[in-house]
Structure formats: structure tokens, C-alpha cells
Amino acid sequence: MDYRNVLTTCIYCGAGCSLYLQVLDGKVVGVLPAKQHPISEGRLCIKGWNAHAFIHHEDRLTRPLIRDNGAFREASWDEALTLIADRLREVRATHGPDAIGFLTSAKCTNEENYLLQKFARVVIGTNNVDHCARL
Amino acid sequence: MAGLAAAFGSGAMTNSIPELEEADCILVTGSNTTEAHPLVATRILRAVEKGARLIVVDPRDIQIARFATLHLRQRPGSDVAWLNGMMNVIINEGLEDKEFIAGRTEGFEELKAAVAEYTPERVETITGIPADELRQTARIYAGAESAAIVYAMGITQHTTGVDNVLSCANLAMLTGNVGRPSTGVNPLRGQNNVQGACDMGALPNVYPGYQSVASPEIRQKFERAWGSTSDLKAGLTVTEMIDAAGDGRLRALYVMAENPMLSDPDINHARECLKQIDFLVVQDVFLSETAELAHVVLPGVSFAEKDGTFTATDRRVQLVRKAIEPLGEARPDWEIICDLAKQLTDHASRITHHAPRGWDYSHPSEIMAEIAALTPIYGGISYERLEAGEALQWPVPSPDHPGTPYLHKGQFSRGKGRFHAVSFKEPAELPDEEFPLMLTTGRIMFHFHTGTMTRRSEKLEQEVSEAYVEISAQDANALGIGKSERVRIVSRRGEIEARAWVTRRVPPGVVFIPFHFAEAAANALTHAALDPVAKIPEYKVCAIRVERIA
Fold this sequence. Notes:
The complex is a heterodimer of chains A (135) and B (550). Chain A has 135 residues and is α+β, with helices and mostly antiparallel strands. Chain A has helices spanning 46-49, 77-95, 110-124; strands spanning 3-9, 18-24, 27-33, 65-68, 71-74, 100-103, 129-130. A 3-stranded antiparallel beta sheet of chain A has the order 1-2-3, with no helix packed on it. In chain A, strands 4-5 form a two-stranded antiparallel sheet. The longest helix of chain A has 19 residues, at 77-95. The N and C termini of chain A lie far apart (44 Å). In chain B, the strands form 6 sheets. Chain B has a 6-stranded mixed beta sheet with strand order 17-19-18-21-16-20. In chain B, strands 3-2-1-5-6 form a 5-stranded parallel beta sheet. Chain B folds into 3 domains: 2-188, Dimethylsulfoxide Reductase, domain 2 (3-Layer(aba) Sandwich); 194-337 and 364-393, Rossmann fold, CATH 3.40.50; 437-548, Barwin-like endoglucanases (Beta Barrel), CATH 2.40.40. Strand 6 (100-103) of chain A pairs parallel with strand 9 of chain B, so a sheet runs across the interface.
């Protein structure tokens, strides 16, 4: 049996509470509050106490999907990334960089947001990048 | 954020969450704090226990209002009027901070002229707030040693959202409540990393650290670092991208872990627009309503399966740690983006003129090092410091800087604080004969945003598993609607069905619907009218009617 508590940051509101994910044999089984944290001070709200609950849900996507004749089929990463690269290249060549847009995410990390805006600006050459801050 | 940036020079929460506990007066408006930010509410309630006076200005009788010295229930969409009214009282009674105004601000005479006509009596006719209660509120706020304003989307999600924020900033500067502990103008961000996404330049008009895309010097700096970059013209916002998809200007859209098909206003319109697009890629953990429309869906990972950082609403940069391996073939979003970048740039028919540098990172800490090098407010942030347990709130300009718990000490980011003369404007859509009620939307304690995660969390879904509409007894009686009866809610843009909750939480004439529920999506009803500057949709006011289902 391998049991660990991993200190991390809650994914719900913007308060930024710290919490521990309880990991048992590679599966997240629960949440514990973090006492030393200046915001959470050993407490969590009901969403925080349940921050682990969706992680292993059966609806999780585990393979890339490509739409073929209206329906999704599973695909390899290679096939999916090549298709995306080809189509983005094609749209950019035909309609210009500003015909492509990017939505980054308030749910993703700073590093991921940084990279996707860099991708939009460097690889595609557009400032069409935004996320749901306004929504 | 545009409002605060114009007034102060920085569009973020000015102070810190723990400081709220020491404030003498807290003005909460447009924030259902106990439900949407429970552990921020804890600090506010502790301040109340220590004797602080709490003022809540909100149309709904939300839980935190029970702890308030005064609860003002304004007509939705009338915020500029009551804020101007408070300033009218403060100036007329000589309660303003003259030293602060003279030394640290500009534009006071224009403000004074603009608020002169907003007498409490006139404000009462616009907002429904009794003139005497407005006077008392102004005196309490202006009389406090340290007064903090706390708001959330109830202030920003209006066609006058920027005006509302500017008015909050005006009020704080007028009374010298900026640049000291336990004061300030404090927007509570709704999502865990909205602050970080903005900080990272995930916006059409700025690079990381709010460095303008329109500045040739800034552009040159990023071009030097990255090898190439976009031009000086700002790009499209989310809502503009949806429209551009509809009229053919936008041909491809790449969506990372967002669900505009449930979070955008007027989603029937959004769906029609997104269906027009030639190529839609969605990267997410679940097959969201938006992913269902995609041409390619890539499996990203949850926060438990990757390392990184999030930035909380009070500018606090914190670690996210990998607890488990990615499920199935899912991959961290940062790895996916790097692979795709390499595919596009290593290809023989390279699509950019210069070979962009830097898509080889072995760990997110290396990405943070690049961010720090290019982003002055994150200049001193590193995984080493965060791993050592340092609490770092930006700006952190250098590795030996301790971070900044509150902004604008001694001087505003822009130099002098700028007052803006703002006048009241009505919301874009008001009730009429056909649609006689006002709809306002928001969140509830047990669910989050579009519900993609919380509705797949057993205990949270057990608590509240279906959409409902809060309606006053007066309106319910007039319509013949009984307790818990299913009703139809209709706007000019769409209709949904939900269960009626007959309650005193909403005043007559106003109904409230949470927007978490895809099967009864409040955003099928909402109006896509935008604030002209911030481009925020008016989620908090539109006209609807409620019908019995025959």
C-alpha cells in the first residue's frame, strides 16, 4: 500500500486555499485541509472538501478524438496532432493568422496560459487570445 | 479590470484577503461572498465580530446580508447611481480626505461636478434605496479609519461594468482608502486562476504582465526573446471571436479547458456561430458542451496530474503539485502545446519567418523561469522560492523582493490616482409588457461555473441537482405559480424550464437563476450586450417572463 498526502492549491474559486490530496495506490481518494496556509487556515468550503471527486470520473477523456463523418472516433496522439498542425497551417495560409483564435483557461496553470498565448503570438502570429475572465 | 487599470494603473485586487479581518468598515457589493468565496467571507465575518461595520449592497437577500449593519437593495443595474449618491453625500458633508485628494489624485473637480446631481433623493428614484439609508452608508464608510470595498461579478457583468468599477475606485480615493492595509478596492475573482491567466497575457491586448501589444518597444522585447511575435494591433475578445466565427472572419478556434457553450451569453447564438467554424479543437478533461462541437478533442489532465502554479485573487502565486500519473493517454496541457508548436515550426514548410525559440521544457519550473525573465511583476518568482514556502504576492520584481501584500503604497502604479466622472446609464434591456421581469444570474455554494467538475462530484450534485429560479411571493402569486412548481422562463433569445423557488431572497420584479446547469442553461436567456470597454456581457440584467407550464 502506498499512501501519500500531496500539498496543492484548490481548483475552485479565486481565494486560493491550500489543500492536501490524499493519494492511495495512485488514486486520489480524498482531501485534507492545510493548517499553515494563510487563507485556508485548516479549513475548506464544501467545494474544497470535494475537490478530488471528479478526478477519476468515468467520463474522463483518455484518448484523442477525431470527428469522422459526424461522429467521434478514437485516434492516436500522432494522428490528432498532425491533423491539427495541418489544418492550422492551411487556415493560416488561406485566410491569414487573424482567422485563428485561441481560448486559454482560468482552470489551467500559469505556465500553460503563458505557453498558449506564446503559441498564438509566435507560431500563428495573432493576438486573438482570450479566456473567460469576463464570463 | 480595465476600470481599475484606468484609475490606479493596475487592474488587480489592491489588498489581501487576510487584511480584511482588520478593516473597520467593509462594503460588499455584487458578491455573494458566503456562497461563492466562503473563506473570504470568513475573514469578513471575523471583522464583524471584532466590531467592523459591514454594509451589503445587493438586490438579493443573500446570507452575508444578515450580518450587515445596513443592507441596501438596489434595482439591478443601478450601481453607478448609488455610488455617485454616496460620493455626493460625502462631499456635501465635507467627509472626503482632502489631503489624499490633493496629494495623490487628479480629476477631483470633474468628479465633484459629476456627482453633484446625484442627491440621495434623486438616487432613491433611480435605485429604490431609501435616501436616509444611503446617507448613513456614506457616513459609515467615510468615517472609518480603514474601509475596504469588496466586489465580484455583480459589479462587472453589466454593460456599465467599467463605469461601476471606476465608481468604486472613485469612492475609495475620495476617502483615502487606498494604499494602506485593510482598505482598497478588492475584486474577488470567480475562478481559481483567472488572475493568473490575465497575468500571463492570455488577453488580446497585452503580453504577460500587462505589457501592451501596441507598444513597439514591448513588441521588440518579445520578438527578441521569442524569435518572432504578433503585430501591434489588439486581437479579438472571447465574445468577439464567437461573432467572428459566425460571420466567417474566424475560421479556426483552439479552446483549452474552457466551455463557452455554457458560459457565454445567449448560447443559442454562440452555438450557431461555432457551427460555422471550419476547424474547432478542444483540449479538456471531459467532453464539455463545447467539445461536443469540436473536430478534434484532446484529453488534458486534471490539476492532480501536473505541476504548475495558480495565482489567487489577491495576486498570490502558489504551487500546484502532481499527485498521480495522467489517466489513460491524457497529457498535461503544457506538453500538448509544446508538441504542437514543434510540429508546426519544425515542419519543412515552416509557417513563421523566424524559428521561434524555446518549446523544449523538461518541467513547468523552466517555463516559470522564462515568464520571470519577461514579466517584471513576476520577476522574482521561482519554484525554488515557492517550494521553500514563501508567500509571494505580485509585484515581486526581483529574487530578493518579499512580494507586495497591498498595492499603491505612497504612489499609484500610474503615478497619480485618476478620478473618472461617470454618469448613470440604464442597462441595455429593461423589462417591458412582453417581458416584465428582470433576470439576474449567478452562482451557488455547491457548484462551480459550467458544472463540468462539480456536477460530476457525487456529494455536490446530491446537494443541488437541478436548476431553479428564485421568484418573489408577489410575482409567484400574480402568475399563479405554486411552491416548487416547474415553470418556463422566456427571454427574447431563448427559453428554459426550471423549478420555482418562491422566496424572499429576491425582491418583486427580479428573478435569479444559477448558470451551472446545462439542461436549463440560464445563458440561453441572457443578453450578449457588452460593456463597450471591457467587453463583459450583461449577465446581471435582462428582461424575461415566467410562465406556468400548462
